[in-house]
Amino acid sequence: MKTAFVFLGLLLMIVAAVANGSGCCDHAITMFEKKMETLVMELKSSCRTPPVASSCQELHKKDPSLHSGVYELVFGLQKLPVYCHIGNFGCGDGGWTPVMKIDGKKLTFVYDSGFWSNKTVFNSEGGMTGFDQKETMLPSYWSTPLSKICLGMMIHGKVNYVVINKSASSLHSLIADGVYRATSLGRDKWKSLIGSEASLQRNCNKEGFNPVPETWRKTRIGYVANQENNCDTCDSYVGFDSKGDMSCGNYASYDADNGDRRTTTMGYILVQ
Ligand SMILES: *[C@@H]1O[C@H](CO)[C@@H](O)[C@H](O)[C@H]1NC(C)=O
Ligand SMILES: *[C@@H]1O[C@H](CO)[C@@H](O)[C@H](O)[C@H]1NC(C)=O
Ligand SMILES: *[C@@H]1O[C@H](CO)[C@@H](O)[C@H](O)[C@H]1NC(C)=O
């Protein structure tokens, strides 16, 4: 790199001297010098290697000047370029590591999909872009420790977010065993992922990871409800994946508070 800068400096001097000699105005020289300085600065910053990190939050802490973008992260023995979201896009400050992107219309990540437990990467290219339509499951699911989970659902082109405060060795450790782990966001907060169209039945009302592992409309992360005063046959949920014909969004039938719904959304899961 050093030789390149020396060369650039030399080039700058020669050009300046020639321009001077040929009576070219000082203004042109100054402009040229400024352009060269900018070029050198850009070269310097693109040559700086980002720190080695295993999460976007670690990357952000090691170098707070980094912006959102694609960075190579180390997941155990695996290195993978992922899109790090840095700064507050709706879930608070810091560096957010993407974990999953779920297309509610597809069945890739339905409740019984092996992906929730078998530690298999799905479409890693989807992890290199932001809040778009590409599905992905990244190794951050089983290898990134977390203290916060950011959930987003895209509806009518806008993403709504909620944050769960929860510490764990990984998201996999909270989900893969199928055990119920409660959260306490509340019904309205879960509905806010969908907005005014959200609909849920009035009973059962369980939320978290694997709320009600055995029911009709079950979910890995979300809120489930029923019209009967028990959780045996829930026909409504807001959540990430479900049993049946959709995998993310809001489903509601049988006396739900805002009518029958089958709203599929893109779902985004990130951790910090
Ligand atoms: C431009 O020419 C003048 C005299 O003609 C000289 O004093 C000056 O050092 C020259 N500047 C450059 C950048 O070569
Ligand atoms: C994990 O589960 C998914 C979905 O069922 C499947 O496509 C994939 O091959 C499985 N991976 C392994 C290693 O069994
Ligand atoms: C989560 O923790 C943050 C502070 O880290 C706090 O501001 C926020 O209110 C908490 N959210 C919930 C739902 O408890």
Automatic annotation (TrEMBL):
Signal peptide: 1-19
Organism name: Galaxea fascicularis (Galaxy coral)
Protein's recorded name: Egg protein
Domain of life, per lineage: Eukaryota
Record's keyword terms, sorted: Signal
Gene name in the database record: GfEP-4
